[in-house]
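User: Spore germination protein, Alkalihalophilus sp. As8PL:
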Amino acid sequence: MRFHKLIKKHSRVKNIVSAQQDTTEPKPEIINHKTITHLFSSCEDVIIEAIPFKEKSNDVETVVFVYSPGLADTELINKQIVPHLEDLIENNEYLSKEIVKEEWKMSSLAFIENKEQLAVEVFQGKLILFFEKLDTCYQINIAKPPQRNTEETNSEVSILGPRDGFIESISTNIALIRKRLPTSSLKYERFTIGARSQTKVGLVYIDDIINPEIVKEVQTRISKIDVDTLFSSNQLAEIISARTFHIFPIFDYTGRPDFVVNSLMRGRFAIFIDGNPTAVVGPVNLFFLLKSAEDSEYFFVYNTFERLLRLFGILIAVFLPGFWIALVTFHQDQIPILLLATLSTARAGVPLPSPVEALIMMGLFELFREAGARLPIAVGQTLTVVGGLIIGDAAIRAGLTSPGMVVVIATALVANFTLVNQSLIGVISILRFGVVIMAGFFGMFGFMIVGLMIIVYLANLRTFGIPYLTPLFPMTSLKNLVTRTTRPSWKKID
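Assistant: Predicted structure for Spore germination protein:
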């Protein structure tokens, strides 16, 4: 019995020791010339070159250069780094880590510990120096990735405003903001997201204007992101959204620095993604999405008129086709007699019911819009306008649709283009189909039901704790709904 207990005790101790050994972290793989060559064996865009240098004692110190020519400044390597390294080695009897660290007078050296970090640094444009005798690996920042000059963004036309726009370099984009706000209250925080992509993400805000709770919330959401790759601003916006599904956009996108600065001064934040020429602005509400970057360049009276026009445009774009279908299908008695007679004459010979006719015409116009967006700008605009006119006229002549239906659908489509945010334009197009379907089945009752559903959904939607219908509900500041004061007072978002 005693012998049996001793055996059990010995087995428990053995299991504990083996478990402790299993939980110990594996040692990082040692970096040497062979490891570097194997790591980049199938990467033809990486140069691995071993250059021997003579020390003062005539011993040879071989330094392995590793870099990517498309991402690094090769001219800097040949003209500055190699001669400086040659002087450093030749002027010392025996090279050591301390001598390299003390006498290196160019850009700062950073020690590299493992091969995973080595690969990341090379593909970020860094130069890797591996000293074989010292068995030490360093990196030098000589990054010179391909990038274009700042130019006007294609999605937001500037008439009176500045013509510099964001590009694919996050450092350049931050500099465009710093140029306009040279103050220490403008905070910039960096994150690295993506296990493979190692994408740089920047969060920008003004700490004495924005609500601190909003900053904490967005910092927490960004820091919790765990993905393999991050390649677009929309991907980031969907990940940090509180809801997994939402119809209306809860972020705004812009390529203009002046609009980002204006948003920051109104208590919002901006997120930049390296490799993306747009900034993600939040938190937003429905009426913020109706604003344009060009609004601040015009007289406030005309600007107020424009915002009212956009608000009226969004109502027309969503509800006009459905309202028309409800009238001509179920409530003909509400149409004036002269107009009803004209519509009846125009619809003579049309084989399709009005709801199906509307859905077909809406689908055709959306098809033209999508085709125009994918073609070059000059050809796309011509196709959208001319194609719509030609096919609309041909459909009327062929008796497939009525002139009144073409006018209503075309008016709704034109009203759609008064909006600024492209994501909102897509949402409006989807809602228009839903309103038409409900009105086609249930008439004005279905039209009112779907309108009420949209209002209830918007009333319950929040972005970072802020109601989506602010300032309409709650009525905090109705004057900011459509007007723009000449001297706005910068206040925190509640």
